[in-house]
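Apologies for my clumsy wording, but could you write out the amino acids of a protein and the C-alpha cells describing how it folds?
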Amino acid sequence: MTCAFARTVESRYAELTPTAKRIASYMLANLDRLGLETADQIAQQAGTSGISVGRFLRSVGYRNLDDLKRELRGGSDRPWMITDRLDEYRRTVGTYSVDGDVGGNDGARRGERALALSLERELDAIRHVYRLAEGPVFAQVADRIAQADAVFILGIQSTRGISNAFSSYLEYLRPRVFYSDGQSGSYVDSLNSEFERPYCIVTDTRAYSRGARRYCQAAAERGQPFALVTDLSCPWARDWPSDLLQVKTDVGQFWDSLAPLTCLFNLLITAVVDRLGPAIDRRVERNRELQRTFDQFES
C-alpha cells in the first residue's frame, strides 16, 4: 500500500521546483532505506544540500526528516528492508586519501578498493532491478507489451543501442515491434501510428534529453500510454502519467552503467514470454524456418 508521504509527494510533484523534484524522486524510489539516511546523505544522492532537503520536507508537511521517519515506522508492518549496508562505507572511502606515490603500492590499493566499491554498487543496482520486477508497475509494463496492437521502442542518447537490442529481441516474440529513431523530427510513426492500442517505451538517463521530455509530454497530451525507463535522479520523471521504472545507474565509474538497463529489459522479455504462453510457439517456429531459409547461422 502506498504510504501517505508518497501519495502527498506524487500529488504535488508537478508543482515542485527542479531541486525538490530531484529530492522527491530519490526519496520515492528509496522509501525502504530512508530510516537509515540523514538529510545530508539524501542531499548527496540528489545532488543538492541538506538545507534543501529540509525545505522540501517542510513543503510537503513534515517538520524534518525524523518526523517523516516516525510516520514511516508507524505505518509499516515489517522491519526496514536494508539491501545495502555499504552506503556509508562507500561515502567514507570516496573522500579518504592515502599518502604515498600514486604509482606505487598505495595507488594500486586505492585502485583495488575503487573497483571493489564499484562492483558492490553495480550489484546493488542489479538487485534493485529485480525488486522492480516484483512490483505492480513492472507487471503492467509486461502486460501492455504483450497485449498492445503495436509496441514502439525509443532509446534516447546513450541508450539508443541497448534499446535497439531490446526491440530486436522483442520482435522475435511478437509482431509489430518498431524502433522509433525520431529521424522524422516529430515522431509521427509512434505518436500518430493509427493503431488502436499502441504502447511506447521511452528510455533516457542523465544528462536528460530535452527531446525525451518533450516526447513524454506529447504522448501524455495525446492519451498515448507509455513507459518511461530512467534513473533515480530524473527531475521530470513524474511530471506526466506513465508506467515509471527507475533504475540505479551511478556505480562510481566515468560513465553511468547500462548493466541495470540490460537486466531490466531481459526480465521484461522473460515476463512477456510468460504472458504470451503457447501463442508464441507458432511465431518462434516460423522465425526458425526463416533462419534456415536464409542459412543464417554457421551451425
